[in-house]
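In response to the reviewer comment on reproducibility (Comment 2.3), we provide here a single inverse folding case reported in full, input and output, so that an independent group could reproduce the run without further information from us. The structure tokens appear first.
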């Protein structure tokens, strides 16, 4: 069975409608892939932001405990 590209090689012509329909088909596939990628990327970005905030919080909390000054008051 010959495909459209085989027919072109044999001297058949490709119309503007053929090209437009193929480009629409390709664009539909790309749009579907783009939508799924955007949703995954959004989840990843949110996860990274939450992880950075949590890490900053816990490191700051630890640093605050390490260098706490203790003041002792003695009555004479």
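Designed residues, in position order:
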């Amino acid at each position: 069975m010959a495909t459209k590209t085989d027919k072109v090689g044999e001297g058949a012509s490709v119309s503007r409608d053929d090209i437009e329909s193929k480009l629409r088909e390709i664009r539909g596939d790309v749009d579907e892939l783009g939508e799924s990628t955007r949703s995954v990327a959004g989840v990843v970005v949110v996860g990274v932001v939450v992880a950075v905030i949590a890490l900053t919080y816990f490191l700051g909390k630890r640093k605050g405990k390490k260098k706490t000054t203790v003041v002792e008051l003695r009555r004479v």
